[in-house]
Specification:
455 residues, Rossmann fold, Transcription Regulator spoIIAA, OB fold (Dihydrolipoamide Acetyltransferase, E2P), six-stranded parallel sheet, five-stranded mixed beta barrel, 13 helices, binds iron/sulfur cluster
Length: 455
């Protein structure tokens, strides 16, 4: 074991992946070195997700198996960070006596200091503690050379946090409780950070937040020109010379404005791809979920997006079996799938999350019924994904190369489709662009061949 080495296991969403990068950098600044082998680490961090019950169970089962490692090596420090840490706090230490440190989502920037505090005693810091909570999002990183944490952190493609937290309180969601209320970063800081990244060789940026569409709208961002919305930020970032691809995630449909939709027409480097979580095709269920839009509003926006960018790829999130969902409500979700014909979706069975209003709603469905609906939805989505992917057959698309191992290359199109290419030249390195002809379509990826003229 190297006494300065640390290992991070990340569960959940892109926000958590970014938070892991931040913790990795903070630790590197104090002399720690990242390892990919937990057995070699002196510090193991589990960066957790509580959005679904399954992810939470995985954390506790992994903590259970780390107990043996700690018995073998009492010097080992075990830290639980992220949303489960935020939600459970001290209870984790009470239940898992081998855990040394628990830090909530708002405190990851202080990881080094909190670690030194936990040297002689166990420490749990979450939102309810009086420890100073940063009401701003510090700039972390900026130089690609500072980030070298493996596949999560490509040198040519970066996630940049522009806001965090959420004010929406969808009835099934823990995020407003675990991540707190919305806080946006100063536009000038974001643009400067991205400029530095692009100067260092980054060609693709994804702007990240729980609800990027409401960037700057519900809280005053000091020094931003007023009014300054997410579409203004997109326009300013898109101007950065050398930035080839710009993406954002995640969007709340109610906050997808006409100005933002027009950005897909006006900004050439904004990729024609949007993740637009709808959750249900039934207005009655959307109301119970507190989503604040109707299917008619949603479809109007989808139609505008498709008319402005006919090549746009739209993906979504679906929850099946929400409390009170009837067969008729579920069929409306199936109808919506036929209408929009999503390129892909993430679909889940509803599960109660602690502290959410949905947990107290009546009309809970059996696991069996939820499973049946999920299977029906996923089967049809798979068929549609395949049909949509077949539309690319014979076309030539530019891919941004992500890996090339022994001539087996993988890259992504502007629409975020994965393309595999065989017999690629070895000098076609990650971060370069390659035009490929699509020769095979599967449900989840495409196969391509380098077009003639390529080396
Ligand atoms: S918009 Fe709703 S689902 Fe998304 S993070 Fe906020 S509360 Fe959760």
């Amino acid at each position: 074991m190297n006494k300065n080495s640390f290992y991070i296991k990340t569960f959940g969403c892109q926000m958590n992946i970014r938070d892991s990068e931040i913790m990795a950098q903070k630790l590197s600044e104090t002399g720690y070195i990242e390892t990919s082998a937990p057995d070699d680490a002196a510090l193991i961090i589990l960066n957790t997700c509580s959005v679904r019950g399954k992810a939470e169970q995985k954390v506790f089962s992994m903590l259970g198996s780390l107990r043996k490692l700690k018995q073998k090596n009492p010097e080992l420090k075990i830290c639980v960070a992220g949303c489960v840490a935020q939600q459970e706090g001290q209870k984790i230490i009470d239940r898992m006596e081998h855990v040394d440190l628990v830090i909530g989502t708002q405190h990851i920037y202080n990881i080094s200091e909190l670690l030194s505090k936990s040297t002689n005693s166990k420490t749990a810091i979450n939102l309810s503690d009086s420890y100073e909570i940063p009401r701003y999002i510090p700039h972390v990183g900026g130089s690609p050379a500072l980030h070298d944490t493996g596949a999560q952190d490509e040198q040519f493609s970066k996630f940049v946090t522009i806001m965090q937290g959420c004010n929406n309180f969808c009835t099934y969601c823990v995020v407003p409780y675990t991540r707190g209320r919305e806080v946006s970063r100063r536009a000038a800081d974001i643009v400067n950070e991205i400029q530095t990244l692009v100067n260092g060789g980054v060609v693709e940026i994804t702007l990240l937040g729980q609800n990027v569409n409401s960037y700057g709208s519900t809280n005053q961002v000091i020094d931003n020109p007023a009014p300054y919305s997410f579409s203004d930020l997109l326009a300013d970032v898109a101007k950065i010379e050398g930035l080839e691809r710009l993406r954002f995630t995640t969007s709340h449909p109610k906050d997808l404005s006409e100005r933002l939709i027009e950005c897909f027409d006006l900004l050439p480097n904004l990729c024609p791809q949007i993740h637009l979580p709808v959750q249900s095709g039934s207005d009655r269920i959307l109301k119970r979920m507190n989503r604040k839009y109707t299917i008619a509003n949603y479809l109007e926006k989808v139609e505008r997006l498709k008319s402005i960018r006919p090549d746009i790829a739209i993906t979504t999130d679906i929850i099946v079996g929400f409390p009170g969902e009837t067969e008729a409500d579920f069929q409306q979700t199936m109808n919506l799938l036929e209408t929009v014909r999503y390129h892909g979706s993430f679909s889940f069975k509803y599960s109660d999350r602690p502290e959410t209003r949905a947990a107290d709603l009546d009309g809970k469905l059996s696991e069996e019924e939820k499973g049946r609906r999920l299977q029906q939805f996923q089967k049809r989505q798979d068929e549609i994904s395949l049909e949509r992917n077949r539309e690319y057959l014979g076309s030539t698309l530019s891919i941004l190369v992500e890996t090339n191992s022994g001539g087996k290359m993988m890259g992504r199109t502007v629409t975020n489709h994965i393309v595999h290419v065989e017999r690629a030249p070895l000098d076609m390195v990650p971060g370069t662009f390659a035009p490929v002809e699509i020769i095979h379509a599967g449900q989840h990826s495409l196969k391509g061949a380098l077009t003639p003229g390529q080396p």
